[in-house]
Amino acid sequence: MGAAVEPNVTIDDWDKLDVRVGLIERVEDVRGSKKLVALHVDFGDFKRTILTGMREEREDCKAIEGTKTLFLVNMAPRKMAGMVSEGMLLDIGYEDGIPSVLATLERDVPAGTRLC
């Protein structure tokens, strides 16, 4: 890829991030947006709606329904296209200019399981 490594972060920076496994229960288009879809995600003890710009990247966004992947759940809420996103999907590839993919799990773990 050739991308430069980002500046170092401290363990205190890392400890602020709350990354968890979420089960994508439902995917829907965001009205009025060409890029955004709303992911309705189950984290075990709670559910969130998370907006992501994958609509133009995938032929069928609904194909990821039922998939478990990683999300940042303590991202500040952000209003986009009239909806509020309550976290961030951690996908792989977009920043490197390749079609993005979801992080997959080696084995099944419960929704809500934390990273480190």
Residue fraction in strands: 25-35%
CATH top level is Mainly Beta
Structural class per helix/strand content? mainly beta
What strand line-up does the widest sheet have? 3-2-1-4-7
Helix content: under 10%
Low-confidence stretches: none
What would CATH call the homologous superfamily?
A: Nucleic acid-binding proteins
End-to-end distance: 27 Å
Report the strand count.
9
Mean pLDDT: 94
Largest sheet: 5 strands, antiparallel
Element order: H for helix, E for strand: HEEEEEEEEE
CATH architectural name: Beta Barrel
State the shape: globular
Radius of gyration: 15 Å
Tally of separate domains: 1
Predict the CATH topology. Answer: OB fold (Dihydrolipoamide Acetyltransferase, E2P)
The number of helices is: 1
